[in-house]
Design a protein that fits this description.
Blueprint: E1 21-30, E2 33-43, E3 48-52, H1 59-66, E4 74-78, E5 91-94, H2 99-103, H3 108-113, H4 117-120, H5 128-140, H6 156-170, E6 174-178, H7 186-202, E7 205-210, H8 213-216, E8 221-225, E9 229-233, H9 235-238, H10 241-248, E10 251-253, E11 262-269, E12 272-277
Parallel strand pairs: 3-7, 3-8, 5-6, 6-7
Antiparallel strand pairs: 1-2, 1-4, 8-9, 10-11, 11-12
Helix pairs in contact: 5-6, 6-7
Length: about 280
């Protein structure tokens, strides 16, 4: 894969003492009813957090709370030392639903250009940096050849690449992604992993929800959720057989003697069951 080069200095994260995310005694939910409570975490710049759990475990609810889309039920939650939603220009968010993009007759490039509106506004013309960032985001996700295509004409995987290109073009200090690899093929997932590893190197903080344990194990922190906090810590420490059993409800042990420490997680990622190896003194 050829590297996508961004013009020097474009969209770099400014040095700041503000924490991207701080939560203390946090409960999140709907209509004052908590889905998950007792969340205590800190996410710093240039670090990653993966939320892992089944559907309905509270992953998306927590992400929506971080974005200020729903209020916390209890406790403290700050984004860049302010109330969630108060620092929108510094945050990029990819949800699982993109209904507005299908109602309007948008081209792929129009969707990616939206990333620059928060910094530029709707009325002010794009600068050369804005155009470069849009082109870079599309090139990085491999959708530059689809720029003029109507979004609704693209496959699900192509659409997801376009939305990820939009996130990249925003050049945010905090990136929040809800199931970002949904619908991506192997090539798309590889582009995603490389692109957002680059965002971490740039200084951004990254928070994602995922079903992919193989991806989550590489994160700086993993928060295991099952409508409660199961565990929080480095991926290679918290993704143990016992904790995955608590999180997903069932693990299937490989019956072959030579695979005594191999388990199949009862949660599909990318259309396949997930096989993990847990040795006596190690995690996946």
């Amino acid at each position: 894969m050829s590297a996508s080069v961004l013009p020097a200095g474009a969209g770099t994260v400014s040095p700041s003492t503000d924490l991207p995310i701080r939560a203390e005694g946090l409960a999140v939910g709907y209509s004052s009813r908590p889905v998950v409570a007792g969340i205590d975490l800190v996410v710093r710049g240039q670090t990653s957090l993966a939320l892992v759990g089944t559907n309905g475990s509270g992953k998306s609810t927590l992400l929506k709370s971080i974005m200020g889309l729903i209020p916390p039920v209890a406790g403290r939650l700050e984004v860049f030392n302010r109330a969630p939603g108060s620092s929108a220009v510094r945050v990029a968010y990819l949800s699982q639903a993109h209904t507005a993009s299908f109602v309007l007759p948008l081209r792929a490039i129009d969707v990616v250009r939206m990333a620059r509106f928060s910094a530029r506004g709707l009325a002010r013309p794009f600068t050369s940096e804005d155009h470069d960032l849009v082109a870079w985001g599309m090139r990085t996700m491999g959708v530059e050849g689809l720029a003029g295509h109507p979004l609704r004409s693209l496959s699900g995987g192509q659409q997801q690449r376009v939305f990820l290109a939009q996130v990249l073009a925003r050049r945010a200090d905090l990136i929040v992604l809800d199931e970002p690899t949904a619908g991506l093929d192997a090539g798309g997932r590889e582009r995603y992993l490389q692109a957002f590893a680059g965002e971490l190197e740039r200084g951004a903080a990254l928070v994602t929800s995922t079903h992919d344990i193989g991806e989550a194990v590489e994160y700086d922190q993993v928060l295991l959720l099952a409508r409660r906090v199961v565990a929080l810590g480095p991926g290679r420490e918290v993704l143990t057989a016992d904790r995955l059993l608590e999180t997903f409800g069932i693990l299937l042990r490989d019956p072959h003697k030579e695979h005594a420490q191999r388990f199949v997680v009862a949660e599909v990622a990318h259309g396949q069951p997930q096989v993990i190896d847990v040795g006596p003194e190690q995690t996946p």
